[in-house]
Amino acid sequence: MRRLKNRVDGLAVLAGGVLSLGLIACTQGKSHAATPAVAAKERAAAVGKGVGAVEDSSSASGFGMTRAAESAGAAPKINAARAMQYTKEVTAFGARPIGSANHKKLEDYIVSHLKGDDVDFDAFTADTVEGKFPVRNIIAKFPGTKDGIIVIAGHYDTNYPLRNTAYVGANDGGSSTAILLEIANQLRGKKREGYSVWLLWTDAEEAVRKWSETDSLYGTRHLAERWQKDGTAKKIRAFLLADMIGDADLNIDRDGNSTPWLEDLVYEAATKLGYQSHFFERSTAVEDDHLPFMKIGVPCADIIDLDYGYGNVFHHSPQDTLDKLSPKSLQIVGDVILQTVWMVDSR
């Protein structure tokens, strides 16, 4: 999917060096250390630039939280058992690359769980190096009382080059599909005293031959262009992306290609819930579905764990199976995402 050039983590820093990896992963670019102290410095820099004007001096010092974190109420908690069941049902379809029968079955499965919701589709034909494929982004809209939108996204397609193997993408594609279905359960039928929340199942995230700027992110590149043209992009207050978030050994990376203040808010949400030990031990720069939106000025945070098995061995491999995942990881990420939404509401 993407390439990880350099990664910095606490162990490498303690050893007095920088850990440089040439792994085929989901990222590309150079990274920086992502300790809470570094995050605090970034918050202070943001305040100095006027970006984080709602933040107070205690947050910039690293010993407190932003006013958004302090004033936000408690967000609902997801049902982790149900999220895991969704993951099992999604994975049971087998490989789900674009253009396949299993992909169409999964589309229908997602839509069947959104009956009664306000659902929109961004459907088009992608012209790729492997031919033309139908692509369909699925958007479920939950209205709020504030003027603005928070998007929570995750891709539902699986790796195309591995389509004829035993690959099922339990974590990469399965967990992101499932967490959005469960978040929909927490939003459905409830009045939101905040921004509208749009759940976005992105399609054709994976490369069909080899990851590049033109062979990847087909769905979000198309949707970002559409939303920029029709004015939707200007209304988006935050774009939260979930990818590969089911790993039983959960360690969410800090992404250098995301918006710093929003990454900080994710960490504060994790801290508020007592889950901070699962976040930002490592830092890298990720090429993922948020990039097309970053390029048009939408604040984004990619919530992703790119150390899937020792040396990332399970990623894009037939070993990406359900036994590597944990309901607890889905609980942590789902709860942190919702808490972040509540905190964005309070900014």
Contiguous low-pLDDT stretches (5 residues minimum) are: 10-34, 44-63
Please provide the count of β strands.
11
User: Taking Cα atoms only, what radius of gyration do you get, to the nearest Å?
Assistant: 19 Å
- Which overall shape is indicated by the principal axes computed on the Cα atoms? globular
Question: How confident overall, as mean pLDDT?
Answer: 86
Structural class: alpha/beta
Query: Largest beta sheet: what is the strand line-up?
Result: 4-5-7-6-8-11
Distinct helical segment count: 11
- Secondary-structure element pattern, one letter each: EEHEHHHHHEEEHEHEEHEHEH
- How would a textbook summarize the main sheet? 6 strands, mixed
Amount of beta strand: 15-25%
Report the oligomer: single chain
User: What's the N-to-C terminus distance?
Assistant: 34 Å
The helicity comes to 25-40%
Quick recap:
The protein is α/β, with parallel strands linked by helices and 347 residues long.
What does this structure look like?
The protein is α/β, with parallel strands linked by helices. It is built from eleven helices and eleven strands. It has helices spanning 10-14, 36-49, 57-61, 67-71, 80-91, 101-112, 170-187, 218-230, 260-273, 291-294, 327-345; strands at 2-6, 8-9, 20-25, 118-128, 131-142, 144-155, 192-202, 236-243, 252-255, 279-284, 300-304. The protein has a six-stranded mixed sheet with strand order 4-5-7-6-8-11, with helices on both faces. The protein has a three-stranded mixed sheet with strand order 2-10-9. It is globular and about 50 Å long.
